[in-house]
Each structure stands twice: as structure tokens, then as C-alpha cells.
Amino acid sequence: MTAMEVVRAVEKAGGSLAVRGSHIKYSIPKSAVWLIPELREKREDIIGLLERRTPPPPMPPGIRLVRWAPQKPPVVLQELSVVIDVEKFISATLAQVSARLDGKDYLAGNWPLRGLIERLEQVGVVIELEHQVTDQLEER
After folding, report:
1. Is 12 inside any structural domain?
2. Domain-embedded: residue 78
């Protein structure tokens, strides 16, 4: 496996990786412990990959990040929509999600919540609403 394949396999299994000095800190479900020897074997390459990653922006209140895998630009969202600055797009769209959750539809560009979530998914970011936010939306 390449270093990138190891990282993706860990994340796909629900695990997480972080660099702490010259070590890799990991959290891996029992079903994926077979990846630990791969982590050790590819340690230097994996550390390099993880250090080059950009951390995700803070999530709006009531949002939990499920997956963070921004794609390389340009990303085609829909017909005639191309994202050339993925990080800026993600931040702006998260701000629109927050505005939508606050009932400020005009600040969300009048996008429906599902549409905003789908736009994020198209650039590699998966989020879900926490139960308390879902309950608040149902009360409106």
C-alpha cells in the first residue's frame, strides 16, 4: 500500500491520524488493526502527507464534521459551476449553512439546507446535523 492508501484506509474504517512531533498518533477501530504495521512501515511518508494537510475550518454550532477530504481543484459542482479555491468555498458554504440554521435565508444565498450540504459533499466534506439542531428546525 502507498502512504495515501494507508491514510485513506484508516479514515474509511472510522479511524483518525495526527502528527505529534516525529510520531503518528492514531485511533483505529479493532476491525482495522491490521493497518498498524502499514502505518509503521510508511511512517515517514504518512507524516509528510499529514503535515501537508490543511485542517478543517471550525464547524458552525450544531454541525459535526463526518468526513474531511477536500478534493483537488478544479471541482465541478454542477453544470457551469467550477470551484477553483476549495478551502474558500468550504468556509463560505459552512457560513451559509450556519445562516440557514439561524433562519437567515438571505445570508444562505436562499439555498436550501440540503443543497448546501450536497455542495459540501461534492468537494469532499460530509457533515450531518446534530439531534438538537434537527429538533430546533422541526419546531420552526
Report:
1. yes
2. yes
Confidence of residue 135 (pLDDT cuts 50, 70, 90): low
pLDDT in tens, 63-112: 888 877 777 678 877 656 789 999 999 999 999 999 999 989 999 998 99
Contact yes or no for 129/62 (Cβ under 8 A) = yes
Q: How far is CA 95 from CA 69, 88, 90, 109, in A?
A: 19, 11, 9, 10
Residue predicted with more confidence, 59 or 138: 59
Number of domains observed in the structure of the chain = 2
The helices-and-strands tally (H runs, E runs) of the chain is 6, 6
DSSP state of 63: E
Which residues are bridge partners to 128 per DSSP? Answer: 64
- Domain with 92, as residue range(s), is 63-139
pLDDT of residue 133: 61
Contact 65, 56 (CB under 8 A): yes
